[in-house]
Amino acid sequence: MKGHARTTGAISVVNALPTGIGCAVGIALPVEASVEIDPGRPGLPTLAVDGAERSPLIEESVSVGLSTFVSRPDARASVSVRSSIPIARGLKSSSAVGTAIILALARAAGQDPGPLDVGRLAAEAGRKAGVSATGALDDALASLGSGFVVTDNARGAVLHRAAVDPDWGVLLYIPSAPHPPSPSLRDAFARETPAGTAAASAAVRGEWALAMRLNTELVERVMGYSYASLRGRLRDEGAVASGVSGLGPTLAAIGPIARLPAIERALPADDAQRMVIPFVRGPTEEAPTP
Length: 290
Description:
The strands form 2 sheets. Strands 1, 2, 3, 4, 5 and 6 form a 6-stranded mixed beta sheet that branches. Strands 8-9-7-10 form a 4-stranded antiparallel beta sheet. The chain folds into 2 domains: 2-162, Ribosomal Protein S5, domain 2 (2-Layer Sandwich); 168-286, GHMP kinase, C-terminal domain (Alpha-Beta Plaits, 2-Layer Sandwich). The chain is 34% helix and 26% strand. The chain is globular and about 60 Å long. The chain is built from 9 helices and 10 strands.
């Protein structure tokens, strides 16, 4: 019983921590997971992992997937994970790993769940593993398909979806310092509920640039980032929108593909990683590899 799945990273438009409403959009940074299920042969470990350090997220993703798709309580899973997403930089690596494992496991069990079902299971695994305070359903769904997705993470509901302009791409500026786990920041973001509500409302209306700006001003206050002047330079070079992705430190700039080289030249001359990445245009398993 074998299954394979490919999902992708994403960038934030709105962080869900202040209100429970989040918005994300998938980018072509792939994660691949392969799963082999043994229905319960004695002596095998409950979970074997290849290609990634065994972690609470991987364990919870497998546990949630087995309990949902495999009826035998003594089933065992062997998992292989390959990811191109920088970890703990705000690019949704946890959501992408969770959705890839759960979808691969479902396929190994001969089932074909829809994206919302997979996203909800990945959100459950993320909460149980302690890597997400809200479950990040928006990030999970962005990892499974194309376009902007706005979700109410408390209710597990999709509020709005929209396609990305086909002329747009994204520039990533990725400093090296990782962000802390989101549960540790729940209280700090809760104090920003009014600003978070304004950003979430703009996203529900489809005003992506406004939502991204309002969210980024909020995240910069909480996290202590000083990106305001840099965001101004990126705008002057043609960025449609720019902002902190997730908890950062990644700054993402959305702009016309033809303008991205000029936008990139506005970045500071330092050792932060830079990537020009396409948006996901169709199913994530068809997304190009950068």
